[in-house]
Design goal:
The protein has helices at about 5-10, 30-35, 40, 55-70, 115-135, 155-160, 165-170, 185-195, 240-260, 270-290, 305-310, 310-330, 355-370, 400-415, and strands spanning about 15-20, 25, 75-80, 85-100, 100-110, 140-145, 150-155, 200-205, 215-225, 230-240, 295-300, 335-340, 345-350, 375, 380, 385-395, 425, 430. It is of the alpha+beta class. The chain has three domains: about 5-120, 2-Layer Sandwich (Beta-Lactamase); about 135-245, PAS domain (Beta-Lactamase, 2-Layer Sandwich), CATH 3.30.450.20; about 265-430, 2-Layer Sandwich (Alpha-Beta Plaits). The strands form four sheets. Strands 12-13-11-16-17-18 form a six-stranded mixed β-sheet, sandwiched between helices.
């Protein structure tokens, strides 16, 4: 037996000798240990006796004949069966045994490769399963190298981005960055992925072939080579366009509901409830900042008489016109005009001193005085006037926002007492006279 085969035999491989006719002439103890048959049983038999199926028996006989014809260091794999009927997988090796007189037969080694075969089968099964999942996954998947060059994409990603096939996508888009609608988001995706080796729930917009954008939730996982060096990454994209549309619609509806909850239906300005919230917030903010906060409280003169004379519809129209006039007088985003109740309005003026509040109040008085309010039924032009009370305070720890409201209300009462159509600040009369 050749030296190489002897070394393999010592490594736990069964050894069998064959005659030039292919019959078994030598049955080593290693073969008996592997197959369970004794030498007497196997002497003169064909090796195909050890193979459970006729097809594999023919394969083994063909292998032996080829080796006898001169093929060297050949091998073949088949299933085999022990004397007890156990089936396992073997790999057969054979080389000619040559003497001076010519071919003496074959030296055959048989190795149990069941574990290796099962491992390969399991690996192939896993690969096939991975390919199936890749192809049928409802999530868009792509693989890229370390430079971001797209290597492969699955059908779902190509469909998500409006391409007819994965091949069409990779032919047109060869770089991961080109998939992102925003280059900065693409840069952020790659940076975070390589920094953390894994990236979860990265929300972004991807470019479709038709130029539209689609929202996606992206995940990433780096890949490594045999030396454990990062050589690229997998990307996973979930289409969340419908979710985003629902979120945006919900946000829009909630914003409308929020506005409706803080808006007066008649005048379309802030209502009393919103004023009550804002005045507390502004008071506390100005307390922290040690800044002056001003308030204007105003009332439409003789509104009850106007409402009784012209009707409620005309009264509502009058309220809306006055509200619009007041809003047109404020210039800063932080100023708030609200309906305080009935025919009363209130204006919050953050970071405004008494002189600034007095000036704005007088501007509002003149603006309302200049209104020509029309009765929708009689088309008569009616001049509406306004009485205003102005107050200003530096919030302190011992006072509350109600004190500012009380001072403005007292000033408004004095404006009414002094003849209406005027502004009063801390008992001081300023502004226009009572029209004739």
């Amino acid at each position: 037996m050749p030296a190489q085969l002897l070394l393999q035999a010592k490594a736990g491989v069964a050894c069998i000798g064959l005659e030039p006719s292919g019959e078994i002439s030598q049955w080593e103890s290693s073969a008996e240990a592997l197959f369970g048959y004794g030498a007497a049983t196997m002497a003169g038999r064909d090796l195909s006796f050890l193979v459970p199926s006729p097809e594999e028996g023919e394969t083994l006989r063909g292998f032996i004949k080829a080796c006898l014809r001169g093929a060297s260091a050949s091998e073949v794999s088949t299933a085999c069966m022990t004397e007890r009927g156990d089936v396992f997988f073997c790999r057969w090796y054979a080389v000619p045994a040559v003497r001076e007189s010519g071919l003496a037969g074959l030296a055959v080694l048989v190795k149990d490769v069941t574990k290796q075969i099962l491992a390969v089968n399991e690996l192939n099964r896993a690969r096939n399963q991975a390919r199936s999942l890749f192809s049928s996954s409802p999530i868009g998947i792509f693989q890229a190298d370390i430079r971001g060059r797209i290597l492969v994409v699955n059908p779902e990603l190509s469909w998500m981005l409006g391409y007819e096939s994965p091949r069409q996508l990779t032919e047109i888009q060869d770089d991961v960055s080109s998939l992102f609608a925003d280059p900065l988001r693409a840069e952020s995706f790659l940076f975070q992925l390589y920094e953390g080796e894994q990236l979860n729930r990265f929300r972004c917009q991807l470019c479709r072939r038709d130029g539209e954008k689609t929202w996606a939730l992206c995940y990433g996982q780096v890949t490594r080579n045999a030396k454990e060096r990062v050589n690229g990454f997998y990307g996973f994209c979930i289409n969340i366009s419908m979710t985003v549309r629902v979120e945006q619609e919900l946000k829009r509806v909630n914003e409308e509901l929020r506005k409706a909850s803080i808006m007066d239906a008649t005048t379309r300005i802030a209502n009393r409830g919103h004023f009550d919230e804002c005045i507390v917030t502004e008071w506390n903010r100005h307390l922290r900042e040690q800044s002056e906060l001003s308030l204007i409280l105003c009332d439409i003169d003789h509104f009850k008489l106007y409402n009784d004379t012209h009707g409620h519809q005309a009264g509502d129209h009058c309220l809306a016109c006055v509200a619009g006039a007041l809003v047109s007088c404020v210039r800063r985003p932080g100023d708030l005009v609200a309906r305080y109740g009935g025919e009363e309005f209130v204006v919050i003026l953050p970071h405004t001193d008494l002189n600034g509040a007095r000036h704005l109040a007088e501007t509002m008085r003149r603006c309302v005085e200049g209104l020509a309010v029309t009765d929708e039924r009689s088309e008569a032009v009616t001049h509406v006037t306004l009485s205003l009370g102005v107050a200003s305070l530096f919030p302190g720890s011992e006072t509350r926002e109600t004190e500012l409201v009380r001072l403005a209300d007292e000033a408004l009462y004095k404006a009414k007492e002094q003849g209406r159509n005027r502004c009063v600040v801390s008992g001081e009369s300023v502004g226009g006279e009572i029209p004739a």
